[in-house]
């Protein structure tokens, strides 16, 4: 059974870019399965793409190939990269987009994408997703060994991802992501709390008492805090948008007082 190739980009769906990448992949590996994670990463927001990919890739089967393109440095000296981290393979720009798997503690093998045999014959200055990354992912799915794609890379780029800080009985966190429902996803997890009880959450001057189990624990329109399906503290409005209610977004401070 051929492996799955997942796609994550900031291309949106209004243009031909995503479809063209899929066409290139199927032209090389016609039996491969392609799954879209998202194409709605905010343009050029590498950190956002890295966080979304980090939340998603673990749910794919072992042997999957994750092709990600959020690439403000396309056409510059930034290198393309393919890396195997544990049982997953990643292909894309070496700009920190793969920071979460790279810092997971799993074994890493990485190469640069400098072998022209595994690119399209002509490489543009502005669409490496089509010309470099899609062919590399497809050839890997077809059985080409990672080492054939290029020279070894010993230090792939990683981003410094902010961690929550505990000061006495207060965790100083921040909003990392805003999802399509307007939920504010923070960088504080249940694992960070290690069994501590949340007394209140403060964001933009609004105080939320405790955490709820699910959205249905409050009435429509009410603001609540809960741990989402990834175990991350999120601020939500039932049937509404916490981002709009609190005028908050990525980087907004969140304080969590624990008992």
Which keywords apply here?
Elongation Factor Tu (Ef-tu), domain 3; alpha+beta; Rossmann fold; 259 residues; 19% helix; 6 helices; 2 domains; six-stranded mixed beta sheet; 14 strands
Strand and helix layout:
Elements (H helix, E strand, L loop, with lengths): L3 E6 L7 H12 L4 E6 L7 H11 L8 E5 L10 E6 L2 E6 L5 H4 L5 E5 L15 H14 L23 E3 L2 E9 L5 E6 H4 L4 E6 L2 E4 L13 E5 L4 E6 L4 H5 L6 E6 L1
Parallel strand pairs: 1-2, 1-3, 3-5
Antiparallel strand pairs: 4-5, 4-6, 7-8, 8-9, 8-14, 9-13, 10-11, 10-14, 12-13
Explain the overall architecture.
The chain is of the alpha+beta class. The protein is built from six helices and 14 strands. It has helices at residues 17-28, 46-56, 99-102, 128-141, 190-193, 242-246, and strands at 4-9, 33-38, 65-69, 80-85, 88-93, 108-112, 165-167, 170-178, 184-189, 198-203, 206-209, 223-227, 232-237, 253-258. The strands form two sheets. Strands 7, 8, 9, 10, 11, 12, 13 and 14 form an eight-stranded antiparallel beta sheet that branches. Strand 1, helix 1 and strand 2 (33-38) form a beta-alpha-beta unit. Helix 1 (17-28) runs parallel beside helix 4 (128-141). The mean pLDDT is 96.
């Amino acid at each position: 059974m051929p492996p799955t190739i997942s796609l994550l980009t900031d291309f949106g769906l209004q243009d031909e870019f995503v479809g063209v990448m899929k066409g290139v992949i199927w032209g090389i590996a016609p039996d491969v399965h392609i799954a879209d994670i998202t194409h709605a990463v905010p343009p050029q927001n590498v950190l956002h793409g890295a966080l979304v990919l980090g939340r998603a890739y673990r749910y794919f089967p072992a042997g999957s190939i994750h092709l990600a393109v959020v690439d403000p440095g396309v056409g510059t000296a930034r290198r393309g990269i393919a890396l195997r981290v544990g049982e997953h393979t990643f292909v894309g720009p070496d700009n920190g987009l793969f920071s979460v798997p790279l810092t997971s503690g799993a074994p890493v093998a990485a190469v640069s994408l400098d072998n022209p045999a595994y690119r399209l014959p002509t490489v543009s200055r502005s669409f490496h997703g089509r010309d470099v990354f899609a062919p590399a992912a497809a050839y890997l799915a077809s059985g080409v060994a990672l080492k054939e794609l290029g020279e070894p890379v010993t230090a792939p780029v990683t981003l410094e991802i902010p961690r929550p800080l505990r000061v006495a009985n207060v965790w100083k966190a921040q909003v990392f992501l805003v999802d399509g429902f307007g939920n504010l996803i923070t960088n504080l997890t249940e694992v960070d709390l290690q069994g501590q009880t949340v007394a209140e959450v403060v964001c933009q001057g609004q105080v939320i008492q405790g955490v709820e189990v699910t959205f249905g624990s409050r009435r429509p329109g009410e603001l609540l805090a809960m741990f989402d399906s990834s175990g991350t503290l999120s601020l939500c409005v039932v049937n509404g948008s916490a981002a709009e209610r609190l005028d908050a977004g990525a980087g907004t401070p969140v304080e969590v007082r624990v008992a």
